[in-house]
Amino acid sequence: MPGDNAAKALIDTLNGLLADYFALYLKTKNYHWHVKGPQFHDLHLLFDTQATELFALTDVIAERVRKNGGRTLTSISSIGGHTVIADDDSADVNAMAMVAALRDDNAALVTRIRAAKAAATEAGDNATEGMADDWTDQAQQRVWFLSSILG
After folding, report:
1. Is 117 exposed, middle or buried (0-12, 13-18, 19+ CB in 10 A)?
2. Which SS3 state, helix, strand or coil, does residue 15 take?
3. Vertex 63, ends 77 and 11: CA angle to 5°?
4. pTM beyond 0.85
5. Structure-derived torsion over alpha carbons of residues 149, 109, 117, 13, reported in degrees to the nearest 10
6. Closest by alpha carbon to 139, among 19, 46, 54?
7. Where do the DSSP E strands lie in the chain?
8. Residue from 28, 13, 14 nearest 85 by CA
9. CA-wise closest residue to 123 among 61, 68, 60
10. 3-class DSSP state for residue 17?
11. Judging by beta carbons within 10 Å of its beta carbon (0-12, 13-18, 19+), is residue 121 exposed, middle or buried?
């Protein structure tokens, strides 16, 4: 692992972001599996699309950690210890409450991505810095879609 503080801060920030992506992926899949109501079909498909998008970035983020000389998360407890995304173990959440929760979680993700970009800038990691712009755009699109459902 790199010895300087900026590199360590970047690795820590990326691992937090990685944990958030895993946690939000699982929460989104939970909602995909358990959504009910008049908008079932549309929400079921939307949640699946968003979960797929989230999961696809987990490997990319983990590889940024490794390319910066760090170690990635190793377990479910490691994910739980690094994420800011709240669990939802319920299988009986109102569909619009699901949408609102995912909107808020994706908005929080935008904040965490921006922190990762700032940490990448500080560490001189222009590759992560550039990727963070795409990650931000994807998260903002999810927020927009979910917000539009809520009206």
Report:
1. buried
2. helix
3. 65
4. yes
5. -170
6. 54
7. none
8. 28
9. 68
10. helix
11. middle
Cα gap 79→81, rounded to integer Å? 5
User: What's the whole-number average pLDDT of the chain?
Assistant: 96
The span from the CA of 142 to the CA of 144, in Å, is: 5
Q: What are phi and psi of 4, to 5 degrees?
A: -80, 155
Helix (H) or strand (E) holding 81: helix 76-82
Who contacts 133 (Cβ-Cβ below 8 Å, separation ≥6)? 117
Question: What pLDDT sits at residue 104?
Answer: 98
Residue 10 in contact with residue 125, Cβ under 8 Å?
yes
Write down the pLDDT at residue 1.
39
